[in-house]
Specification:
about 110 residues; alpha+beta; five-stranded mixed β-sheet; 3 helices
Length: about 110
C-alpha cells in the first residue's frame, strides 16, 4: 500500500500573528456609551480600557475633573466598566486623550 499524506484545509486567519504580537493596528477600541435612565437622567459608561490601568484612579480623576459621581462595575461579559452620572461622553474622550491613556482613533462614542 502507498501512504498518502492528506492535508485537510482549515480556515486561514491572516491576523493570527498580529493578534499575538500586540501590534498597534490590532488594539481594541474604548467604547463610550450613554444610557437613558428615567426622565432627563443619563448614565455614561466607559469600557474597553486596557487592563493594566487602575480603573479606580481613572474614576477618581474623572469625578474630580468633571464634578460628577460614578463607580466601577464588574461585569462577567464586559469586564470592568466605569459608570458616570450625566452625559460625559465628550468630557471622558478629551480626558483620555489629554492624559495620554488612549489615542483618539481608538475611541468610539455611541449614543443618540
Amino acid at each position: 500500500m502507498v501512504d498518502l499524506e492528506v492535508q485537510i484545509p482549515t480556515a486561514f486567519d491572516p491576523f493570527t500573528e498580529a493578534k499575538d504580537s500586540g501590534a498597534p493596528g490590532v488594539k481594541e477600541y474604548v467604547h463610550i456609551r450613554i444610557q437613558q435612565r428615567n426622565g432627563k437622567k443619563k448614565l455614561t459608561t466607559v469600557q474597553g480600557l486596557p487592563k493594566e490601568f487602575s480603573y479606580e484612579k481613572i474614576l477618581k480623576a474623572v469625578k474630580k475633573e468633571f464634578c460628577c459621581n460614578g463607580n466601577v462595575v464588574h461585569d462577567k461579559e464586559l469586564g470592568e466598566v466605569i459608570q458616570l452620572q450625566g452625559d460625559q461622553r465628550k468630557n471622558v474622550q478629551s480626558f483620555l486623550v489629554n492624559a495620554d491613556l488612549v489615542k483618539k482613533e481608538y475611541i468610539k462614542i455611541h449614543g443618540f
